[in-house]
Amino acid sequence: MSTLACIFIIWKRDIKRYLRERSQIFSTLFTSLLWLVLFGIGIGAMELKRVDINYQAFLFPGIISMALLVTSVRSGISVIRDREFGFLRVLMITPAPRHALVLGKVLGGSTAALLQALVLLSLGWVLEVRVTPLSFAQAALLVVLTSLGFVALGVVIANLIDSLEGFNLVMSLLIMPAFFTSGALFPIFVLPEWMQTLAKLNPLSYGVDALREVLVGFPPSYFGLGRDVATLAVFTSAMLLLAVLTFERRS
Amino acid sequence: MIRVERLSKRYGNALALREVSFSVERGEVFCLLGPNGAGKTTLLSILATLVKPSAGEAYINGISIRDAKAVRSRIGVVFQDQSLDLKLTAWENLETIGVLYGLRGERLAHRIAQVLELLGASEVANTLVKNLSGGMRRRVEVARALLHEPEVLILDEPTLGLDPKVKEELWDHLLRLRRRDATVLLSTNDLEIAEACDRIAIMDRGSVVAIGSAAQLKARIAGEVVRITTRAPEEALEKLRELDIHSPRVLREKLAFIAKDAEELVPRIAKLLGELALAIEVRRPTLADVFLFSTGREIEGDKGKGRKKRGRRRR
């Protein structure tokens, strides 16, 4: 039994399902555009005293991170759906290793997040963000690294919670605070001390910070790119491990 | 091929399975017959390695079910509730699961085509499962369970909720497996289905109460079965004391018992009961009667019992 083949087929299945769920893709892209255009223009129109930046360009990596966060965590729903629709039981009686099933699922969710991000990245030129082949590639890698962690987090939640309602509740309690304290909408250094602390505890902040560093380059990175990547790597590894453990315990 | 020894399963304080033992020979179509809640699904889930037993042992072709991994590649399972991915085609469903059983490339494609053909589902291979009828989904599920050429096929209520024509079709396909030397273990509360199996284990409240072929089980009832419809079964029984009747069972507005040469007894019964008897029925024993006389209760049959719908509508 080849573990890789099992991971690949689960990944393939989840990607197929994702691509067939057009409304989901459309709604995330549409929401991202609303934030970028309407919110971005509105805030940008105010005179920003302490930070001299093009707000829409500043917002760009933040909105990519938001789309990434939502798509990633939401892919945990597929675990709950599979459980409800009996498909998970069929997976469980195959001789395939459990961790291969989880990894396939996480990779599938992460790929979905990457596809969303790539579409948004290609819009960079509209916002006067010059996306070079290098920064494009760097951003894509960061998106994968960050989304793997958040998809795994979604899977962990799905393993601990039975109902779709419960999952949605946890998700809404998690996503908005994570989004608002990540520095996606405003630079972390202008925030009061207590909010800066929240930002430091929020793994998404490091993703936003790193993406902004490679795509826009201003304001200067709050954490530093090295620390961003290291923190994300630790977060993602821990979440992957937790996802496998909770999945195995549940079965 | 399947050996079950004193298998028990406890959920909290409830005993879902009490020391169940039986064995199934290679190539047999073996049926667990019993009402809902008899423990059939629990038993099948244990054999499918999804649930661990509280006590006892079970073996698939000599391998203990505690060695889950080794057992999994030897069994194919069709669950009671639908379990296909509705957003994939029939082929894609089989492909996904086939890979997880270790099938690849040409061999996988060949097997998928083969099992779909076997179940008469070739023409829907590229149809999204959500667009398939209930009967066709069932067939695709059976096909999926056969992909990796399991030694044992386990089916939990395979015909539940299917209309009679579809049920018959599916059953024809299942019987074709018998000729292929596959061992089939299925559960049902459908007497017709049970009748068509090689052997039957009648289950009630977590225990096996009788095992044998349909003919053997019916032969245990020495005589004919008399069923009397009456408002006062206890009183009726009292009045029939002088007759040579066996194993009386008092039911709701009904009295049932076994008697030899029952036809000849009918006039005497009618005379003794008078107005008390609203109807007297004499019949050769059926499996329903076997259940009644082994448990003291009526089997529910599958009348009006639709397939339980799980989960919510998919978005």
Structural descriptors:
heterodimer; A: 251 residues; mainly alpha; elongated; B: 315 residues; alpha/beta; 6-stranded mixed sheet; 4-stranded antiparallel sheet; 14 strands
What would a concise description of this structure say?
Chain A is an all-alpha fold. Chain A contains eleven helices and no strands.
Walk me through what this model shows:
The complex is a heterodimer of chains A (251) and B (315). In chain A, 77% of the residues lie in helices and 0% in strands. Chain A is built from 11 helices and no strands. Chain A has helices spanning 3-20, 22-45, 55-74, 77-84, 87-92, 98-121, 133-160, 164-180, 193-201, 203-215, 225-250. Helices cover 33% and strands 28% of the residues of chain B. Chain B has helices spanning 40-47, 68-72, 90-100, 105-118, 134-146, 164-178, 191-195, 214-219, 233-239, 262-273, 287-295; strands spanning 2-11, 14-24, 29-33, 55-60, 63-64, 75-78, 152-156, 183-188, 199-204, 207-212, 224-230, 245-251, 254-259, 277-283. In chain B, the strands form 3 sheets. In chain B, strands 6-7-8-3-9-10 form a 6-stranded mixed β-sheet, with helices on both faces. In chain B, a hairpin with a 2-residue loop joins strand 1 (2-11) and strand 2. The interface between A and B is medium-sized, with 29 and 31 residues.
Task: State the domain count of chain A.
Answer: 1
H/E topology pattern of chain B? EEEHEEHEHHHEHEHEEHEHEEHEH
The gross shape of chain A turns out to be elongated
What average pLDDT do the residues of chain A reach? 91
What proportion strand of chain A?
under 5%
Greatest chain-chain interface? A-B, 29 and 31 residues
Report the biggest beta sheet of chain A as strand number plus sense, adding barrel if it closes.
Answer: none
Which bin fits the share of residues in helices of chain B? 25-40%
Query: In angstroms, what is the radius of gyration of chain A?
Result: 18 Å
